[in-house]
């Protein structure tokens, strides 16, 4: 790749404050690497697979070309089995899309038991999982380039 990579950040805003914290870490990592990016929002993690699929369709239709994707969101266990649907089904479809289309994706979707776990992982000054997802996407972009995919 001759120019700096361009990535698409897909943010689930179900927990807006956590989404902001994850995005802060991701953006800092991308800017540090000299990458450019666009951001789109979806209501919750369950909508992330459709948004990723839509972005791929838009790219096929001569839309913006993204070298990689950063997925951000948080699923916090509640009282019912809904957590398992949101966390597991989204992860399954996301991985199918990634493998089927050789996508460079960093997964920054937290799946946690409570708010404390979520904040420890979302804060840029703490575990910085948003930054880690951005770095994973950049690493996979570099791998794709090295393998000529
Ligand atoms: N419980 C969480 C959700 N639930 C909402 C779903 O993601 C979805 O938006 C809804 O079912 C409408 O289709 N989303 C999260 O991102 N995090 C959660 O903890
Ligand atoms: C993971 C969720 O969707 C969660 O917010 C649902 O909570 P509950 O199981 O208490 O309805």
Automatic annotation (TrEMBL):
Pathway: Cofactor biosynthesis; riboflavin biosynthesis; riboflavin from 2-hydroxy-3-oxobutyl phosphate and 5-amino-6-(D-ribitylamino)uracil: step 1/2. One of its GO terms (molecular function) is 6,7-dimethyl-8-ribityllumazine synthase activity. Its EC number is 2.5.1.78. It catalyses: (2S)-2-hydroxy-3-oxobutyl phosphate + 5-amino-6-(D-ribitylamino)uracil = 6,7-dimethyl-8-(1-D-ribityl)lumazine + phosphate + 2 H2O + H(+). It is an enzyme of class 2 (transferase). Pfam families: DMRL_synthase (PF00885). InterPro entries: LS (IPR034964), LS/RS (IPR002180), LS/RS_sf (IPR036467). Belongs to the DMRL synthase family. Catalyzes the formation of 6,7-dimethyl-8-ribityllumazine by condensation of 5-amino-6-(D-ribitylamino)uracil with 3,4-dihydroxy-2-butanone 4-phosphate. This is the penultimate step in the biosynthesis of riboflavin. This is 6,7-dimethyl-8-ribityllumazine synthase. It comes from Roseibium limicola. The gene is ribH.
């Amino acid at each position: 790749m001759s120019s700096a990579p361009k990535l698409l950040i897909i943010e689930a805003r179900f927990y807006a404050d956590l989404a902001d914290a994850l995005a802060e870490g991701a953006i800092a990592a991308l800017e540090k690497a000299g990458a450019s990016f666009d951001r789109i929002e979806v209501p919750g993690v369950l909508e992330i697979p459709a948004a990723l699929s839509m972005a791929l369709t838009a790219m096929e239709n001569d839309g913006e070309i993204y070298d990689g994707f950063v997925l951000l969101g948080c699923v916090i266990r509640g009282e019912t089995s809904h957590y398992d649907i949101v966390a597991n089904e989204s992860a399954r479809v996301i991985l199918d899309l990634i493998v089927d289309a050789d996508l460079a994706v960093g997964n920054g979707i937290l799946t946690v038991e409570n708010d404390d776990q979520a904040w420890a992982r979302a804060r840029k000054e703490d575990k910085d999982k948003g930054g880690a997802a951005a770095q994973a996407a950049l690493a996979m972009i570099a791998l794709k380039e090295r393998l000529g995919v």
